[in-house]
């Protein structure tokens, strides 16, 4: 939840002060909405696997395999979107007090690939 403290300043820096309230609420509301949707989706996958085994409950790693695969793919997509956002907002990111060298190199690599 540490990112919540940065949301207010990041929203105004990235999207401007116009319509700040709407932009901020969209950024903040994705957390509970995503948790609710993914929770129901995980329960659906679990029950589907249990039904395929002919039981009311399921135990073992295979019961959660699809859930972990989807969650991992979602994390990869989220990481890639963060890198794209960093590349698009380099002027803002350059003013941050702490810069991660590997992230700067990665953003430069992505930006160079986009120009080609």
TrEMBL record:
Q: InterPro entries recorded for this chain?
A: NFD4_C
For this UniProt entry, what's an example GO CC term? membrane
Give residue ranges for domain NFD4 C-terminal.
5-92
* Segments forming a coiled coil: none
* Residues spanning the membrane: 68-87
Give the record's keywords alphabetically: Membrane, Transmembrane, Transmembrane helix
The protein's name is NFD4 C-terminal domain-containing protein
Where in or outside the cell is it found? Membrane
User: Its principal location?
Assistant: membrane
How does this protein sit in the membrane? Multi-pass membrane protein
